[in-house]
Amino acid sequence: MASEMKVERELFDEVMVPCYSPMDMIPVKGEGSRVWDGEGNEYIDFAGGIAVSCLGHCHPAMVEALTEQSQKLWHLSNVMTNEPALRLAKKLTELCFADKVFFANSGAEANEAALKLARRYAADVYGPEKSEIIAFKQGFHGRTFFTVTVGGQEAYSDGFGPKPGNVTHLEYNNVDALREHISDRTCAIMMEPLQGEGGIISPSEEFVQTVRELCDKHNALLIFDEVQTGNGRTGDFYAYQGLGITPDILSTAKSLGGGFPIGAMLTTTELANHLKVGTHGSTYGGNPLACAVAEAVVNIVSDPQTLAGVKEREALFRDGLSKINSKYQIFSEIRGKGLLLGAALNEQWQGKARDVLLAAGEQGLMVLVAGPNVVRFAPSLVISKQDIEQGLDKLDKAIASLVA
Ligand SMILES: *Cc1c(COP(=O)(O)O)cnc(C)c1O
Description:
This protein is of the alpha/beta class.
């Protein structure tokens, strides 16, 4: 039995490294898209743990997979392989361009593997001078030192001493800047197929086509960071499948485990062969518990009915948000794709995304922000229509409270 120590928000300030600033309420239980705090207050969850809880909280199929595996085998390390990891890898390769999978524990680690593979491949095949990584401003790729350096936000990467070198940041969606800059010394381009943390920014068709074309021309690898967009989030299983181009390396995490930590780097056999025995690894990567849960998640999310349901729910969100906007004139635009949506605040509301988040919390609704000017929604992919309606009602009340 866990001890019955009383846990309150003040304890966070006492015992936790202060790199987060969590809300006052402490959730203790969740079911579907509903969450309850220790006082019994109920919340509707439009945040999904930042695009993670793709089947809501405590989905029966996930609980079953976890419970079953927890009575069989928890951990081996990569000195041995295990059945859930192999089944999941097989399934993932069937769902996309990739032939090979490397398992990690998070998005940052999946991206770290992707970047190391790209550098290793270029060094093996073309020589050491081909090492430049091109990435994009406002991009986000995780918090390890390599990934934070490749991410396009200095606030996250600076102040930790010398950074990994030869990383260039260009403007997302700027075709001319990319055309001008890329060269045969470019080893890879890393990008999100829809910038999440950077403000819910979709790429133009011309941009993605040009990125692929220029990578081919200069023998550079294209790395798609699908940590936030993958696993059905945009209505395709992977976002690239809706963009008409295919990357060489893809990273996935967040919704892959639906709430259990797991990440993966996917690639072709040709590229994978450059990570030979001993070149990379992870103690927990491919952990049987994580893989068993992810397998249950992927089975449900990859079902065409689930993916079609994402598009239906997107329409409900867009309708509801437009209605709210016609009442209060607060948004300049509703953007994003599938159930990764951003409501951009208009001129009068600049900088107030966090105010909306806090006001929503007061009404019993959990939402996210993406920077200071965008309210972000990344709910469960199977959230009920009733929960969407009730959540939007709460958002309406929250905004009314800010207008008053
Ligand atoms: C969240 C996120 C990451 C980092 O994932 P972690 O699991 O927090 O390491 C990387 N890339 C993108 C696009 C993300 O949204």
